[in-house]
Batch of 2 targets.
Target 1
Amino acid sequence: MNENTDTPARQALDALAVDTENTAALDTLAQSDVLVPVPEDANPEATADPAVVALPILEQPGGDPIVPVFTSEGELAGVLPSVSRYRLVPLGALASQWPTEELSLSIDPGSAHPLTLTSEGVRTLLART
């Protein structure tokens, strides 16, 4: 698989690694599509509805649960090689539907410049669209 991993979302993450207050990078990220792995136990009816996104929740040892999302198939395969299905979702749309409980969002976990946001950060920082 030969793919370009230098997507606008990836560039925004790289910029945010240098300056977490970079509003242009936050805007780009909020408007970018991300790959959301489809959980193995997801309800098939829910996965067919384009308005509903089943969130894959990973338990962190000693930390809050996280939802991993990815900027490319390469990033997804590097962290979750057994995942065979995903949905392409605008990151801002996730923010508008984010659950209220303490659930963090991790963008490209395991990459050189991952970004993890608390549930409040998801709703406030990414709801920029």
Target 2
Amino acid sequence: MIDPLERWREYGEKPDYAGLLTFSGMPYTQDPAELAGVDIAIVGAPTDDLVSDRPGTRFGPRGIRAASCPHGPHLEAGIDGMEVLKVVDFGDAPVLPADAVRTHAAIEATVGQVVDAGALPIILGGDHSIAEPDIRAIATRRGGPVGLIHFDTHTDTGKEVFGVELSHGSIMYRLVEQGHVDPKRYVQIGLRGYWPGETEFSWQHERGITSMFMHDVREVGIRSVVERAVAIVGGGPVFLSVDVDVLDPVYVPGTGTPEPGGMTSIDLLWACREICSRVDLVGMDVVEVIPTGVGSADITCLVADRIVREVITGVALKRTSGS
């Protein structure tokens, strides 16, 4: 295992822009045997072959890592999640450009190695289609469907998008139909805009999927929304999937299908930490990040980095509370 901070230990803190590019300067390995005893493994899924609008999320994992900085205490939560938990960067899945099927197989295999080692996978996307191999790797190894909390502008429950079945807009439909996500323990948060339509929402209603629109977040507040979501998914295994376009574009200018009128980063960051401190989290992904700058100057990558940090903080809070 490689320690990116090794050269800096006798000098002090490593600057963000120097050294090996791993998430938050965490140790790096591609060897599944070195995942023994690891709590959380970061996996990159750099692919955007299945987008329906702007491409560029293939650069998301690298951009998020570049925006990350060495860990420290969370000033609100009063805990350093990366001190409480053993976190490593497991590198990128071996994706293959222009071959979405083999790319998804590679992502599923890589995430599966993390799950087999007993660690919790956090996957950096990539377009939202990566959620299918992410969740499938977990659900198949756990022997049953998982609950899902899904932050997004869109439901991603189209049977087809532009006549294509495998798309970043169809993955949630596929996961439910494949039996990997329990629709009655599936909550969508932040929906708005002009897609999808009656067909998709009728399909969701028939299966018991819960949709909370942006006007719900606005009217009742994020705390009430999170309370309801946590109650719906219950005490079983839960996957968290965060499409950054759930945020208003002022916070994420670098994303493929931006939609005005979204959540604030304050609300989303708190919600991710709160959810992960209370549910039985078995994995998460953050997707649809298109880097627009360099390092920590890129606000889209920076907010994605902070989403991951809040998730890690939430998991650490749950661990220390003994719940």
